[in-house]
Amino acid sequence: MKTPTPYLIGFAGLIALSSLSASNWPQWRGPDGTSLASPGEYPTTFSPSENVLWKVKLPGIGSSTPAVWEDRIFVTCGIAGEDGIIAYDWNGAEIWRETLGPERAGKHKNGSGSNPSPITDGKNLVVYYKSGTVASLTHEGKVNWKTNLQEQFGEDTLWWDLGSSPVFAAGNIVIPVMQEGDSYVVALNPADGTVVWQVDRTFPVQKETGQSYTTPYLTTIEGVETLVIWGADRLTGHDPKDGRTLWTCGGFNPEDKAMWRVIASPGFVDGIAVVPYGRTKYTAGVKLGGRGDITATARLWERSDLGSDCPTPVGRDGKAYLLTDRGEIHCLDAKTGKDLWKGAIPRASANFYSSPILAGDLLYAAREDGMVAVVKVGEAGMEVLSQNEMGERIAAAPVPVSNKLLVRGIDHLFCLGSR
Predict the structure, then answer these.
(1) Is 291 helix (H, G, I), strand (E, B) or coil?
(2) Which among 101, 326, 336, 373 has the fewest CB atoms less than 10 Å away?
(3) Rounded-to-integer distance, Cα 185 and Cα 187, Å
């Protein structure tokens, strides 16, 4: 179903496309999968009425982050009980919408049937839903193909709402399914959705510990393109051409505890994975690379006094910024795990569910109650520049692109910036 009906609300001044930079945000964590945005003139103070270029009312619930490619903004959400995808332009006008079959609604208050973020390589737009549906569309909204992982490989056994986003790797679409019981990683052909490879990723773990809501990270390690996946008490590296395991790092649950599912993905800084785990209790540093079982040689450090359950760390230049669920920010030396400095966003009863994004020296962090903090970070410490109340629940990460900030709430998509 395509309906070019506008859902424009409020100010929507004309924005010349020629003035936009070539910046894109093609996947959940940005261009290179590290939550780093290009430096720019991004807004530092805003509200539902201040520095709003436009906002649109979304037709249904979703917790996914928008994807951006040049003149298109893509958002997944429920539409009249179906899995849906909508394309907007930079004026906030709806270009097209498509529905892709029955939606499976979310269980958690911050969850939905549209938790995974859409991804694009500039040609293919790929969407994935809690229903198991995976689909490829053109940027003009034509459905290229549609398939369903749960129909092919078995029912979803996650206790909560599927959250892993797909990634492009070695010319394929790769999706991890890490759940209770049989878990796997699958690669689909972008041309027709057929299975290129599927590998087992089931490990012997206690109840719920095998369940993971994380997203893979594609990088090159020692000249080898590697897909890094976190879940079931193990960080694993895979060859994206065939899915085979190159290396495995364990030791994240030495007492073999139950209920150690993971939500936050690792942060990646200079070849080091900063891995939160143990339900906010632990964080470890792992040097990526090697062959076989690298547990004894790759684990650089571990802390038992620091962690995050939902926010994924972000970092650069040897530093990792870890945002806890309660709003503390620790700037860590990625090689040693030691605090270079720490600070905090003023506390509230609500938690941080979305992951922070770093744009230059500005760190954007959205709290579930709708407050978006803008924090200036530097060598000496941090300064909270603003706490911006958006008036509705937020679970998606903000998207700084083209000198604008996209904020996806439970009801609206906001485009913020200077008029």
Answers:
(1) coil
(2) 336
(3) 7
**Running DSSP on this structure, what letter comes out for residue 262?**
B
Q: Provide the 8-state DSSP code for 345.
A: P
Residue 262 one-letter amino acid: V
Residue 312 CA to residue 333 CA, distance in Å, equals 16
pLDDT in tens, 369-404: 999 999 999 999 999 999 999 999 999 999 999 999
As a whole number of angstroms, the distance between CA 347 and CA 230 comes to 29
In a 3-state reduction of DSSP, which class is residue 301?
Answer: strand
Q: What angle do CA 137, 138, 142 make, to 5 degrees?
A: 70
The pLDDT tens digits for 201-255 are 999 999 999 999 999 999 999 899 999 999 999 999 999 999 999 999 999 999 9
Phi, psi of 58 (to 5 degrees): -85, 145
Q: What is the token pair recorded at 234?
A: 């193990």
The Cα 290–Cα 55 span in angstroms is: 48
Tokens of 283: 């964080």
Distances (CA, A) of 182 to 82, 150, 361: 27, 12, 42
Q: Which of 327, 333, 335, 331 is nearest to 311 (CA)?
A: 327
* pLDDT for 12: 34
- Strand, coil or helix: what is 23? coil
Q: What is the pTM of this model?
A: 0.94
- Which has the closest alpha carbon to 179: 151, 152, 207? 207
State the DSSP string of 39-62. Answer: -----SS--SSSSEEEEEE-SS--
Q: How many helices (H) and strands (E) does the chain have?
A: 2, 35
Non-local CB neighbours of 142 within 8 Å, separated by 6+ positions: none
3-state secondary structure 194-246: CEEEEEECCCCCCCCCCCECCCCEEEEECCEEEEEEEECCEEEEECCCCCCEE
Reading the block at residue 396, the tokens are: 């998606």
Question: Tokens 């903004």 sit at which residue?
Answer: 73
Strand order in the sheet with 52-57: 8-9, 52-57, 412-416, 404-408, 399-401
Q: Are 308 and 276 in contact (CB under 8 A)?
A: yes
